[in-house]
Amino acid sequence: MIQRQIKLRLKPKQEALLNDWLWQCTGLFNWAIRKIELDAQGGVYYTKQGFQNILAGHSRKMGMPSHTMQAMLTQAYIGWQRCFKKLAKKPRLKGMRNKLNSIPFPDPLKQPVQNKIKVPGLGQVRFHKQSLPDGKIKCGRIIKRASGWYLALTIDAEPNIKHTFKAKNNRVVGIDPGFKDVIALSDGEKKKATLEYNQGLQRLAQAQRGHDKKLVARLHERIANRKKDRNHKLSRHLVETCELIAFSKDNIKGIQRKFGKSVANANIYQLRQMIDYKSSSCDRRYVEVDGKYSTMTCSACGSRTGPTGIAGLRVRYWTCGCGTKHDRDINAAINTLNTAVGSTVELAA
């Protein structure tokens, strides 16, 4: 399964209808969240299929596809199921600070003809023409963003990856994430941060002082797109050139609470996800390793003589008692690789 997003070119009536559906879906989701919560307090529970059909016949009154309503009810049901299983927090109600921005269409869609695709309830919808992979469109979801409306298609097809790397590539690397350098590799290579957030910070501040909410949202989206583009290119480069990739898994949320913007600009979690799914598509091995003690441990002798604590962050180069000189980030990347190689050997055994 792969996903492709196409930007829609809506007529005024279609856009007004989607805005109306979005408002109705928000109320429907909030109603479902509260109903499951209150009925559970009274000992009343539902099956997934039973909760889907709880509003059977209401789609005509609301003027929207029935399967879209069922998908919204299912979304609320799954949210509570994950909460009951302690896999996620309690689902939040949608509102001004937590907006619902998508409308699901769970049924298969017909293949687009030229630059038009048929969406239930909307009819033929134009989109900016782009190539789509051959395969059955299993479902779709219309998403509202600051730059317009998009249709996310889930297509039953295999990813078409151009294998530009050599078949026999024995390069193995450990990766230590950072903020001045996005990543440091165990073989000494470093990728500097491009600071997408800082580059657009002045224009963003001007829009916020001017209380232009649409422009603020558009600038945030543009910054996010630049980060995503950078991570796509970086993850692709790593997957093409490395057979084994070991990534140091740190507590990103905890670090972000201390250091703020620099951590958010690096967007390390998104990079980890991209390397993960691209590695599986290219028959590469990807391992996430706990980064505990990786900085303070000497990669040569294994003794913990390196810098520690917040004050130790200033120390970028240090010398171990065994006489080995270390670059802080590269040493951590080497320790990550050593740990990963040990774990993969155990799994193979």
Task: Explain the layout of strands and helices.
Layout: E1 2-9, H1 12-41, H2 48-52, H3 59-62, H4 66-84, E2 102-105, E3 116-119, E4 123-127, E5 136-145, E6 148-156, E7 172-177, E8 181-185, E9 190-192, H5 196-199, H6 201-209, H7 213-241, E10 244-249, H8 252-259, H9 261-266, H10 268-281, E11 285-290, E12 317-319, E13 325-327, H11 328-348
Parallel strand pairs: 7-10, 10-11
Antiparallel strand pairs: 1-4, 1-6, 2-5, 3-4, 5-6, 7-8, 8-9, 12-13
Helix pairs in contact: 1-4, 6-7, 7-10
Walk me through the structure.
- This protein is α+β, with helices and mostly antiparallel strands and 349 residues long.
- It folds into 2 domains: 2-156, no CATH class; 172-193 and 222-348, Nucleotidyltransferase, domain 5 (2-Layer Sandwich), CATH 3.30.420.
- The chain is built from 11 helices and 13 strands.
- The chain has helices at 12-41, 48-52, 59-62, 66-84, 196-199, 201-209, 213-241, 252-259, 261-266, 268-281, 328-348, and strands at residues 2-9, 102-105, 116-119, 123-127, 136-145, 148-156, 172-177, 181-185, 190-192, 244-249, 285-290, 317-319, 325-327.
- A 6-stranded antiparallel sheet has the order 2-5-6-1-4-3. It has a 5-stranded mixed sheet with strand order 9-8-7-10-11.
- Helix 1 (12-41) runs parallel beside helix 4 (66-84), helix 6 (201-209) runs antiparallel to helix 7 (213-241) and helix 7 crosses helix 10 (268-281).
- It is elongated, with a radius of gyration of 24 Å.
- The two termini are 31 Å apart.
- The relative contact order is 0.10.
- Residues 343-349 have low confidence and may be disordered.
